[in-house]
Specification:
Blueprint: E1 12-17, H1 22-36, E2 40-47, H2 60-77, E3 82-88, H3 97-110, E4 114-118, H4 132-148, H5 157-160, E5 171-175, E6 182-185, H6 190-198, H7 201-204, H8 210-226, E7 234-241
């Protein structure tokens, strides 16, 4: 049985994702629950999502700026105000030492109890969460949690030049991977999840009323797998103890 830290034990959670909207598709309901319980949540977006959208009249620079604004608006829907960016090019993310260092830096700055990230594993049952950027960010972020952020001798410049002390995040949650060992009932926060996703208008406006229907179908299946009552809605995760 997987041990999951109780929300009452947590002060801060860091969410590391590849693109604007990734956290909202995978975990906006859970995030809303965390902030409702008084937990500080910080977002780190590795790219600006400049390769997204459907409008050929918008330049990629304009798309990047638009998607930053959309993610900030979506974050407000679930109680998050601190959104940070690394600005890597969308579609070309690799799990480099540089990315590990940049994520470790933010872990040491935020000092989170839990880190949420994409799964580094490919999901052959549902291929869409397994975008190469997602897997690269998941791999780099997991390495940043262990061993980089907690090891004072890894990336010593973070301590010597920036004064960032080592930090151990006790728990990792991943989304979109082939292994699920934890579900969160988000039925009461479904509307906020929908609102967060609708804030990403450049990505979701074309879906119209299909968006909540798609989400209900997907999240109802999660709830059934979790053994929840009919009509409940859930998000799914793999929880990894990293204490």
């Amino acid at each position: 049985m997987t041990y999951v830290l109780d929300d009452g034990e947590l002060q801060r959670i860091l969410v590391v994702m590849a693109h604007p909207d990734d956290v909202d598709f995978g975990a906006a309901g859970a995030v809303a629950g965390w902030t409702d319980h008084g937990i500080e949540v910080v977002y780190l977006m590795v790219t600006d999502g400049d390769a997204g959208g459907f409008d050929d009249t918008i330049t990629r620079t304009e798309m990047a700026a638009l998607r930053r604004d959309e993610q900030r608006a979506a974050a407000k829907c679930v109680g998050v105000s601190d959104v940070r960016w690394l600005g890597l090019p969308d579609g070309r993310v690799e799990a480099t030492l540089g990315l590990r260092r940049d994520i470790a830096r933010v872990i040491r700055q935020v000092r989170p109890d839990r880190v949420l990230m994409p799964s580094p594993e490919r999901n052959y049952e549902r291929i869409y969460p397994s975008h190469p950027d997602h897997r690269a960010v998941g791999a780099a972020a997991l390495d940043a949690v262990y061993p980089d952020a907690r090891n004072p001798y890894a990336f010593p410049e973070l301590l010597a030049d920036e004064g960032l002390e080592a930090w151990t995040a006790r728990e990792v949650w991943t989304t979109g991977g082939p292994t699920v060992n934890h579900y969160v009932d988000v039925t009461d926060r479904f509307d906020r999840k929908v609102n967060a996703l609708r804030a990403h208008a450049s990505q979701t406006a074309h879906m119209g009323d299909e968006l909540p229907t798609m989400l209900r179908n997907w999240m109802s299946a999660n709830a059934t797998a979790a053994g929840l009552a009919e009509g409940r809605l859930a998000e799914s995760f793999q929880v990894i103890n990293t204490a």
